[in-house]
Specification:
Elements: H1 2-36, H2 38-47, H3 49-61, H4 67-79
Helix pairs in contact: 1-2, 2-3
Length: 80
């Protein structure tokens, strides 16, 4: 009986591994895009503000302070 469940367990493991890898690469792509494009961050602030909040918190943890305030000021001034 263990013989028949082993291939199923391997298949499930491979599927979980693929999903995990897709998640890691997706998170890297998203972070990289936000880290290199202020316009993309502005779009994210309108559509997905909770994701942008995670981005700001992560760069503040790395020691880059003031980015959020500078961008909010710039976006406010561009509206006027």
């Amino acid at each position: 009986m263990a013989h028949t469940t082993e291939p199923a367990a391997k298949k499930i493991f491979k599927e979980v591994l693929v999903v995990e890898l897709l998640g890691v690469f997706g998170a890297y792509f998203l972070f990289n895009k936000m880290n290199t494009s202020q316009d993309f961050r502005q779009t994210m602030s309108k559509k997905f503000p909770f994701i942008l909040e995670v981005y700001y918190k992560s760069i503040e943890q790395s020691g880059l302070d003031g980015v959020r305030e500078q961008e909010q000021e710039k976006w406010l001034n561009s509206k006027n």
